[in-house]
Specification:
With about 250 residues, the protein is of the alpha/beta class. It has two domains: about 10-50, no CATH class; about 60-250, Vaccinia Virus protein VP39 (Rossmann fold, 3-Layer(aba) Sandwich), CATH 3.40.50. It contains nine helices and ten strands. It has a seven-stranded mixed sheet with strand order 6-2-1-7-8-10-9. Strand 4 and strand 5 form a beta hairpin. Helix 2 crosses helix 3 (about 40-50). The protein is globular. This is Protein-glutamate O-methyltransferase CheR. GO terms for molecular function: S-adenosylmethionine-dependent methyltransferase activity. It holds the Pfam family CheR_N. InterPro entries: Bact_Chemotaxis_MeTrfase, CheR_C, CheR_MeTrfase, CheR_N, SAM-dependent_MTases_sf.
Length: about 250
């Protein structure tokens, strides 16, 4: 009814989260949950928020972004235009991290960042680019470890215990709803970031998404995965070489 398909998500996690919502609403059965979400779209939105993991932070795993600066940015400088896809962008922290990195490397003006997620709710939060002030100490540390070349506080303004990132960082960002399970490729990209998303899929769905990314990457395009993810054992393992196997940076070679 709503167009979501969780059949190939990791079953133990999905089962646990469904029962969490059943108990939170004091429904007592899966049938009662089904009836509720079929007749109330807002309840479906709440269920969706329980099923989708939105854990992220700016410059998460800063060593990856440092490796990206050293190994990928020099290649991107040779391109007339750059297209980057952040698949499963959540609330946008990683997208802003990339925008700042490209800005500091003088590449932002010739880049277009596509930020997609299954949830329109989290995309709306990403479009706002507003985060709690209490997170900035950790984000600043990550920024410096990731090779940041300026003052991190220059990129935002503080208002009532919140930070509002400057809007120019979103000038070249396109936010759109996209479901990795059901939707197809929509462009050709030089870089695809999909970090800590595949770990929630079973092997069948992982292979499907790897095929989607392979078809969406340009020749010599870069794929960045999460720390617990790998291109190994996928059907496209031989189609990539590792730029940095520890940081899960891969280059499409055929």
């Amino acid at each position: 009814m709503y167009g979501y398909d969780f059949r190939n998500y990791a079953y133990p996690s999905i089962r646990r989260r469904i029962w969490h919502r059943v108990n939170a609403w004091r429904l007592g059965s899966i049938s009662a949950l089904q009836e509720k979400v079929l007749h109330d779209a807002r309840s479906m939105e709440s269920l969706l928020s329980s099923l989708i993991i939105n854990v992220t932070e700016m410059y998460r795993d800063p060593e990856l972004f440092l490796a990206f600066r050293k190994l990928v940015v020099p290649v991107l400088r040779t391109y007339p235009f750059i297209r980057i896809w952040h698949a499963g962008c959540s609330t946008g922290e990683e997208v802003l991290s990339m925008a700042i990195l490209l800005h500091e490397e003088g590449l932002y003006d010739k880049a277009r960042i596509y930020a997609t997620d299954i949830s329109e709710e989290v995309l709306n939060r990403a479009r706002e680019a507003v985060f709690p002030l209490r997170k900035m100490q950790d984000y600043t540390r990550n920024y410096l470890l990731a090779g940041g070349t300026g003052g991190f506080s220059e990129y935002y303004a503080v208002k009532n215990e919140e930070v509002h990132f400057h809007r120019f960082l979103l000038d070249n960002v396109v936010f759109a709803q996209h479901n990795l399970v059901t939707d197809q490729s929509f462009n050709e990209f030089n870089v695809i970031f999909c970090r800590n998303v595949l770990i929630y899929f079973n092997k069948t769905l992982q292979d499907q998404v790897h095929r989607l990314f392979y078809e969406s990457l340009s020749p010599l395009g870069i794929l960045a995965l999460g720390t617990r993810e790998s291109i190994n054992f996928s059907h496209h393992a031989d189609d990539y070489e590792a730029l940095d196997s520890r940081e899960k940076l891969y280059r499409k070679i055929r």
